[in-house]
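Predict both folds.
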Amino acid sequence: MKNAASLFVLLCWFVTAAIAQEQTNPKKKLTYNTWSVGIDAGKSISYTDIMDYDFFPKDFTYWGTNGSFFVNKQISPFFGLQAHLYKGSLYGIKGPKTFAASYFQYGVNSYFSITDLLFTNVRHKKVNFYFLVGAGLIRFRTYRKTGDEVVEAFGYSIPDLSQGRPTTEFVIPTAAGINVKLSRDFDLNAEVVLQNLVSSDKLDAQISGNSNDKYASGNIGISYKFGKKENHYLAWISSREKQEFEEKLAKKNKKLIDSLNNALIQVQNKLRVLDSISNALPQPEADDDGDGVPNSRDDEPNTPKGNMVNFRGVSIIKLKDTVKVEKTKVVLDTVIAKDRELLFSIYFDFNKSDIRQEDKLKIVEAVKKLKANPEYLMEIRGHADKTGSAQYNEQLSKKRSQAVVDMLTDEFGIDSQRLIRTYSGEDELLSSKDDAINRRVDFIIIKPHKK
């Protein structure tokens, strides 16, 4: 349980440190690829009580093997974190004594770039020298022989060397190495590692009181850097290059922000112009009795609700006797039944109620129709498009129908009692795409039924 808890603490340290680095700079100016994985392999030698050499064994039989897998998280061009797994074997000899051990080791290392520390102005790095130091746990089984006799073991039973529970000790790895950039995705790695067991004298299965057992390994491997293809890998960017990249991006961002601010100012100016135009538009006049004729021109200011009126606001048809109205649609189907026929429509410019000169010829046709048929009535129905508020469009459609009524009575002498002015605002759109079609006045002939 103690060893498991120690491993858990080490892994938590690695993960927490990586996440903390991401959160300490929430406003990143640039994004880099920062993760890589790799494998390596090589030879290992032990430095214990059982060794007959100063640095390297003379007999290659006593060189062990070593392999490892690692995951790197680069924090800055100079510093990174590494989770590392090692697996290998060790041998030693001193006179008649020999030992053999197998091990599995895991831990977390801190990575420091010597190249970036010593050569801060270097650009486009291809070679990176580094050193690392860390902490971890090593689990091993080992036995010692004198001649052919097994005299001591940890993790094995004596004398048959059947496997038992491995021994676990703390270890502090230190290393120096070199990375060579092969391509955007792959690096070649070579390093020498010295593994220092903490307060342990069991690696060679000989307890001598000197708690300084160690082993070393030399490894060559390859690592793969993953992330977005357009991003640089942080370990291959010098501190100087990183600063230059960020300054360049800051200038680009400033230019973009200035452009957006200028666009915003232009939009604000246009909104002010539109607001001034809106304020300058005529406001609808008061109509106390709600008959559609403003008070200033209403000859019958107290028209009963529902009565049809002429352009002067005088009742011409009483609903209870003749006409039923549904919203703006007039349905003539009561006592005085009439047929209805759309004669034609005329059209208006945006936000205008002025009659175009070319439309007067059409209106003349309506005048001819009315004069040739004294029994006919005519509904003049105004419309507007959907631009603007519904209230404003209702008043605009009223002005358009009133302009037509005024022309028919004032210029052509049509009796106002024969004209029924109605308006629908934006409620009866003919087109959802072409607003010019919706800005119109309809001329509707109302014929009496033949008995």
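Second protein follows, with its predicted structure tokens after the sequence.
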Amino acid sequence: MCRRNGLVQLVLLVWCLGNVAGSESWESAIGFQRFLDRLGDDRPLGREIAISQIEAAAVDGGYQPQDGSGEFEGEDAFAGKAFRTVSSASRASGHARLVGQFLYGTQETSGFGARSLSPSVQRIDLYRADVRDYLSKDFLQPASDAAPKVEHNAIQNHSWSGQMGGASVDYMNAKLRRLDHSIVRDDFLCVVALANGRDTPIPPLMASAYNVLTVGCSHGDHSRGVTHPDLDGPDRGKPDLVAPLSATSFATPVVSSAAAALLECAKADPELTAAQHHPVLKAILMAGAEKGPLEGWERQDTRPFDPVFGAGQLNIDRSYQILTQRQWHQDTLASQEMEVIPLTLSQPASSVSVVLSWSRQVRMKRGKVTGTSVADMSLRLYRVNQDDHLELIQESVSPNENREHLYLQGLSEGVYQLHIETDNTVSYGVAWMADEIPRPEMGWEGNTLTPTALVEGIRYEWQESFDLREWTIVRTFTGGEDAETTLSIQPEAPRAFYRLRALP
């Protein structure tokens, strides 16, 4: 549904009434069941995380998940919620209600699988995405001598998009610069929907901002291409990641609610405090994303994110592991300096994912934008060989993005280094995950070695050595496919050493 307001074409991301998640439970597809199995009743629920919900108005002007004005309490699926209308109050809209159920709802009442990963989020500020409201006096304030209003909440969720319409490039850039400025100044995560439909261009509002986390759908039927050639930072790819919902309106709050759960963990543990910074949280979410469910995912060194799926499909369990196992780093790097992060694999890894994220800086004085800058960063993975020689394995050197991504399949065990470089002083977040193949367990009976806990689909080698320096292959097999996995040793054979090695 499109609605012109002034010169901007605001798009309420309309959905088809049906199963919003498709044939598979979206919770299962994003690793939520594994997340539950890991944590049970101790899982984070978004406690003490406040969210701003920004919605385009329906035809009747409604933009709220529930009727009410000023500060009011939620009912039914929103029982226990404390709402505040920042924009002028209106009636409820069905779209906002469904988005709210995915974002913070306490129960599913729609029949469309609308459930939240963070039902304990209590405080929600409500904005109407309108040239007179959020885009103007209620938050961005581009026509005034004041900076954007302060965002006190941890997350903004934008399940709407804005196309050019008859608006000028300067008008759009002014909005985007102010949003990028406020994200850095107030350090919140801004999660933004792409438009639905693979033939639609990347929306200027708000998906073309640098510092947002842009979300598409796992089926790929969303905006494709790059940012508008006349906007700040042309030729940047979108999205950052995807979620398995039928429309971007609902994929976006699923990502926001996953972020709220992670933020609860980061706030509760002093050792994880730095993960609350938006570049770090973006990196954690993207590094944990999966490629496997997405047919045709690919990257290039200068285009390190897939043009349709970004970093991949949201996986809350993987991102939780990255967060709590401290597989991330946050720092400030001076111009022409390099950060070196050691990475050791004790076992071969079926895949390794690394994401680097940083923000555009927008300078303001007396409410006016005085300049912008974006650091040019690079990310490289090196193997440290026995003579300490560094062997380049992969690099990510996008010329115009504020994100970099390494993704490798089949990496052998060993010592590695991540190298991060910049041409300008910048604060950044980097996160990584290595899917190391578990070491099989070994049983010995008579003259036979019997491995257990093998990983299905992984190739294994039985190897033999007489001096622990040189090893020869005795035979290979595939876990879960080949019936014969044991190794029988003849009693009269010379004394030797044997090992079972997983092949990356």
